[in-house]
Amino acid sequence: MPETLQAGQFYTLPVERIVTPGAYLRHGNEDVLLPNRWLPEGLQKGDEIEVFIYHDSENRLIATTQKPFAVVGQFAFLKVVSTSPAGAFLDWGLSKDLFVANSQQREPMSEGKSYLVYVYRDEKTGRLAATEWTNQFLKTDTTGLQEKQPVTLLVHRQTPLGFAVMVDDCYEGLVHHADAVVGLQPGQRLQGFIKQVREDGKLDIVPGKPGYDKISGEPERILELLKQHKGALPYNDKSDPQDIYAFFGLSKKSFKMAIGALYKQRLIEILPGGIKLVE
């Protein structure tokens, strides 16, 4: 824990005292106010509470129980709620919007559109801000990363080859169309794994879990759905990927792996018109 409170981070802090404006929380020799509007009912002196620290409109550190879409050191896909001559303001889940200066925009941002940004703390002022100039925060040395290593993904944009994703908030990777879960959208956060670390250091990524670990639990879920639908469902390995995802929430590849496992266990039949439980 740093010696002083840092904006842009979560802390679990004890309540030092309750006052008219809210509750003062203690961090070392510092107190920070949690305003009444964020005060949980029944909070008392001595209780501990998790809060996020940021600056209010008067440049004072303040606490909130609201959860931002990203913290310092993370990428996020955020929507512009307003613009000004100095820059743009982004909705990042707090009552106070996140500022992006004009100098930190690739091109002028438009209200209502969403952009990939990186949340950082200004070294001079300590205030939180965002930037579109994200490459400076990406690591290019992928030495030490391994195939099948679990990672957290943020979908950035669709490309001719698939979907560009931010990996663990420090690398860039690609989910090829063949490996993409139907319905991937920019701004979506999900879990995945490294399929391949290429010779040029670039990362090929797959959503979900590797191999048959990826479908652990999914065959059981399909069995349960079959039981709920009188032992038969109109889906098989020839079904449209969109239809499979809409009903099961699975990519066609994952669905085929799951029903293949059930078929090998002789729990289901795969028929021209769908799948059914073995009687």
UniProtKB/TrEMBL annotation:
Transmembrane segments: none annotated. Residues 220-277 form the Conserved virulence factor B-like winged helix domain. Signal peptide: none annotated. Residues 8-66, 72-131 form the Conserved virulence factor B first S1 domain. InterPro entries: CvfB_fam (IPR014464), CvfB_S1_st (IPR039566), CvfB_WH (IPR040764), NA-bd_OB-fold (IPR012340), WH-like_DNA-bd_sf (IPR036388). Belongs to the CvfB family. PANTHER family: CONSERVED VIRULENCE FACTOR B. This is RNA-binding protein. It comes from Phnomibacter ginsenosidimutans.
